[in-house]
Known about the structure:
Layout lengths: L1 H6 L3 H7 L80 H18 L1 E5 H20 L2 H10 L3 H15 L7 E5 L10 E6 L1
Antiparallel strand pairs: 1-3, 2-3
Amino acid sequence: MAATGLATWSMASLRSALPPTPVARKFPATGSYFPVIKTTRRKTPGISRSFSGLAIANPLPINTDCIDVDHRISLIDNGGRFYAMRHGRRVPKLNRPPDQRRALLRGLTTQLLKHGRIKTTRARASAMRKYVDKMITLAKDGSLHKRRQALGFIYEKEIVHALFAEVQDRYGERNGGYTRIIRTLPRRGDNAPMAYIELV
């Protein structure tokens, strides 16, 4: 009995029971479902239209038939440069911006020339090594210009004057290699590799 009751229903009777759906109207000028609003733009002299800024230059077209959209991704070209990996760039960044990195290296150099031996991380010790050698090389020259260059880098001027006074007796016969790095146990807490750096 249930089978005969289900057989009496049909798609035509179901459609007649549903409310009528509005039919989308196409615009005759464009043949699409959305009107096209024409606007006039005033041309401004002196402004280039090639710069797109943060706006998408070529927006992604909407196509429901296409599932793979990898080939539809467009790049934004606003005249900027793209830098690849830093191959061959031997500058140690020490996880700091340039101004803080320079201040850190100046402070470490000042403390090493003041105390003769300090304990720091291996990366910082390797990075500050060339600056300590540079200061000693300036002191070996001994001219006023080199003294002012050293005063502009080392924080304490008393250390500069003492360095220029004693460097000839200590490093007069040595050409480079004024520092020594000795590895030690890692730092407790973050396990950072540590080292002693000292003047030879």
